[in-house]
Amino acid sequence: MKLRVAIAGFGSVGQRRYFFLKKKKFFNVVAISDQYIQYRKKFKHGKVYNDYQKMLKEEQIDVLFVCLPNKDSAKATIIGLNKKCHVFCEKPPSRNLKELKKVYERYKKTKNLILRYGFNHRYHESVQYAKEIIDSKKLGEIINLRGVYGKSYLTIKLKASARINHDFNWRTRKKDSGGGILLDQGIHLIDLMNLFVGRFVEAKSYVSKDYWKKDVEDNVYTILKNRKKIYATLHSSATLWKHNFSLDITLEKGMINLSGILSGTKSYGEERIKIIKRTKNPLKPTETNKLYSNDLSWDKEINNFITLIKTKPKKYQGGILEALETMRIIKMIYSSSN
Fold first, then answer.
1. Predicted local distance difference test score (pLDDT) of residue 159
2. With contact defined as beta carbons under 8 Å apart, do 211 and 239 qualify?
3. How many CB atoms are located within 10 Å of the residue 19 CB?
4. How far apart are CA 95 and CA 72, in angstroms?
5. Which spans in the chain are helix H?
6. Other beta carbons within 10 Å of 333
7. What's the pLDDT tens digit per position in 16-47?
8. What's the rounded Cα separation, in Å, for the pair 45 and 39?
9. What does the pLDDT look like over 49-66, one tens digit per residue?
10. Is the CB of residue 203 less than 8 Å from the CB of residue 332?
11. Measured in whole angstroms, how far is the alpha carbon of residue 329 from the centre of its chain?
12. Single pTM value for the model
């Protein structure tokens, strides 16, 4: 029997999740909610609500996808868990670590429920290949990491009414978002650095609002250190006029360079991985490149969610513990700022 699914928030991310969910025989999307009628009109095959809390009160569902603004993520997740639903929540999992800890306390009281978070960069083929190389130890241990992730804006101004622009610009208000570009994009880099290395214990950071002069940061520059004295530098930016994603991983016997990321905007360039190997001649390393043309990450991530629901393992990747660790590091970065 198909599991009944509701999607809370039917903007661009909610619609993209639905595009893949409707292809899965395991799921039946029975309801969506969104405050904007133009988004609600895009759903033709079930019930439509303008308020997610009303939807969750009235609908009998098995699975909840949370695709809401940051201020509602933790609250909606808890409501879903209270309804004994499996929950898939987009990133960030909450506005701050304190909110997420409340989710964790509720989740610990559940039985056989899966709580997953949408860090879909883990499911890009270039990232998975990098993880395979690192785990094989063919290039030795990691020495350091260097990541840049940025775009040219905090939010885009719409050709709409002042009220709609105010609503859509919630990312620029700390009370609604919890933070700026670090929570919006940089969180993906932190999650990947945790995937490859993990357990950072110290941060030195600069957090700046100087360019866009909004309530949240537009640039974050940070150095992280873990217990093994592996260092990671990160630049999360809303002032990169040409959008950029890159992650360099230096190992004992070579380097891995991830560049470009396939996305909905197609603005980050080609997704590729470059593998550099040391040779006896330090001036002539060997290089191999691999290019990826299809973004399979969204489909792979939902397939993983289905597998988790079917098997109900006690431990799994992408769950609440990793989300807590990511939000702990984000708190550490903000706290270590000038």
1. 64
2. yes
3. 11
4. 9
5. 12-21, 37-40, 52-58, 70-82, 97-107, 125-136, 162-168, 174-177, 181, 187-196, 297-311, 320-335
6. 27
7. 999 999 999 999 999 999 999 999 999 999 99
8. 14
9. 999 999 999 999 999 999
10. yes
11. 14
12. 0.96
